[in-house]
């Protein structure tokens, strides 16, 4: 495997079991030449918070470590990492929907990423020839005779073969228990796992709705805003959702289904629970800027402006309290320099928590 990939490129390795993923991780680190710490790590259901930390670092496109992740089932869906260059299959994949989800881990666009590579040790490539992959195979065309005169191109389209515009993707309307209706993109390949069982996107959203509309999560929209406005209580809510079968990655998949990729995970919950249309992160920031900056010094404003630009680009993970030290390092090159510019780490933490109240 190591001979088949660029060892500096981000790679996902799908293994047969949790134990197998651990063994492959150990072998990769042993066989690699002078690998740095956390070069190859395992992310499975057994790895808990450490695995979640490694996954967040892997998803950060500015970080090069960890470079290789080994897994068994956990990462076949919902890994929102743009710069994955290699998908390695070390276990059979006989389910077409799961195969599509695994291949989909590599299809995200990123700067200077023009292709990705599948390294297949188990013969899973035959799924590409299955009619379920993308319909019946297109028969080979007969060679076309060379024209007597050169073809004239207008805007890259042959004049006598102008392409018909693609029809818009249909929507699926989901009817919920209290008479509400939600619409999502029609995507037959989207499969979720709920408590270990595969379910459709429609089933998953209904389960999410029936879970979050009870008072034990939040009583109303105002309480949801209050909870989400603090990175402390927001993490508690996300942990509670994960414990009930709804991981952050699942919420991101729903985010895509409701055409809210440029919005916040808050918008996903608000849309599911209260049918509120998502708003772009950039719009959310623009509406809140005056309140956010009103009590900040120039240096504090400069740092928060940097944080908000990261939020607009990358999403709510940039506002996680555990991300603060990384943000300070990115902005000031060292934590010491960040403290020198902004004050003690406790005062920086208070500022980081307090400005988010105005954002939501």
Characterization of this structure:
This protein folds into three domains: 2-131, Rossmann fold (3-Layer(aba) Sandwich), CATH 3.40.50; 171-274, no CATH class; 282-359. Helices cover 43% and strands 12% of the residues. The protein contains 14 helices and eleven strands. It has a five-stranded parallel beta sheet. A two-stranded antiparallel ribbon has the order 6-7. The protein starts with 9 loop residues before the first strand and ends with a helix.
Task: Give a brief description.
The radius of gyration is 23 Å and the shape is globular. The chain contains 14 helices and 11 strands.
Q: Quick one: biggest sheet?
A: 5 strands, parallel
CATH T-level topology of the largest domain: Rossmann fold
Q: Supply Rg.
A: 23 Å
Given as residue ranges, the uncertain stretches (5+ residues, pLDDT < 50) are 153-163
Shape, principal axes of CA atoms: globular
Strand order of the largest sheet: 2-3-1-4-5
What is the CATH architecture descriptor of the largest domain?
A: 3-Layer(aba) Sandwich
**Helix vs. strand class:** alpha/beta
Throw out a few tags for this protein:
globular, 360 residues, five-stranded parallel β-sheet, 3 domains, Rossmann fold, two-stranded antiparallel ribbon, 14 helices, alpha/beta
Question: What topology emerges from the helices and strands here?
Answer:
Blueprint: E1 10-14, H1 18-31, E2 40-42, H2 48-59, E3 68-71, E4 84-89, H3 96-104, E5 117-120, H4 131-134, E6 153-154, E7 157-158, E8 171-175, E9 181-185, E10 191-194, E11 197-200, H5 201-212, H6 221-228, H7 231-243, H8 248-257, H9 265-274, H10 281-293, H11 298-314, H12 324-332, H13 335-342, H14 345-359
Parallel strand pairs: 1-3, 1-4, 2-3, 4-5
Antiparallel strand pairs: 6-7, 8-9, 10-11
Helix pairs in contact: 6-9, 8-9, 10-11, 10-14, 12-13
């Amino acid at each position: 495997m190591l001979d088949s990939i660029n060892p500096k490129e981000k790679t996902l390795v799908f293994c047969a079991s949790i134990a197998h993923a651990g063994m492959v991780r150990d072998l990769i680190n042993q066989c690699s030449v002078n690998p740095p710490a956390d070069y190859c790590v395992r992310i499975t259901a057994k790895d808990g918070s450490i695995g979640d930390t490694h996954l967040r670092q892997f998803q950060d496109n500015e970080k090069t470590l960890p470079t290789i992740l080994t897994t068994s089932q956990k990462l076949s869906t919902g890994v929102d990492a743009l710069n994955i260059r290699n998908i390695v299959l070390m276990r059979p994949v006989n389910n077409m929907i799961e195969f599509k989800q695994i291949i989909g881990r590599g299809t995200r666009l990123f700067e200077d990423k023009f292709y990705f590579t599948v390294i297949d040790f188990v013969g899973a490539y035959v799924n590409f020839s299955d009619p379920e992959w993308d319909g019946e195979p297109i028969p080979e065309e007969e060679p076309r005779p060379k024209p007597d005169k050169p073809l004239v191109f207008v805007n890259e389209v042959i004049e006598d073969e102008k392409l018909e515009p693609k029809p818009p993707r249909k929507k699926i309307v989901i009817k919920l228990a209290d008479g509400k209706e939600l619409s999502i993109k029609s995507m037959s390949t989207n499969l979720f796992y709920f408590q270990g069982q595969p379910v459709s996107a429609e089933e998953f959203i209904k389960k999410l709705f029936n879970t979050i509309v009870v008072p034990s999560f939040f009583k109303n929209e105002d309480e949801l805003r209050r909870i989400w406005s603090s990175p402390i209580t927001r993490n508690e809510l996300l942990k509670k959702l994960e414990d009930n079968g709804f991981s952050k990655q699942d919420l991101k998949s729903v985010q895509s289904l409701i055409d809210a990729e440029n919005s916040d995970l808050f918008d996903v919950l608000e849309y599911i629970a209260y049918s509120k249309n998502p708003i772009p992160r950039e719009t959310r920031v623009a509406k809140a800027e005056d309140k956010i900056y009103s009590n900040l010094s120039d240096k504090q404003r400069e740092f928060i402006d940097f944080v908000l630009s990261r939020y607009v680009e990358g999403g709510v993970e940039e506002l996680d309290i555990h991300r603060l030290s990384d943000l300070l390092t990115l902005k000031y090159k060292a934590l010491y320099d960040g403290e020198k510019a902004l004050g003690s780490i406790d005062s920086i933490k208070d500022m980081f928590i307090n400005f988010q109240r105005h954002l939501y």
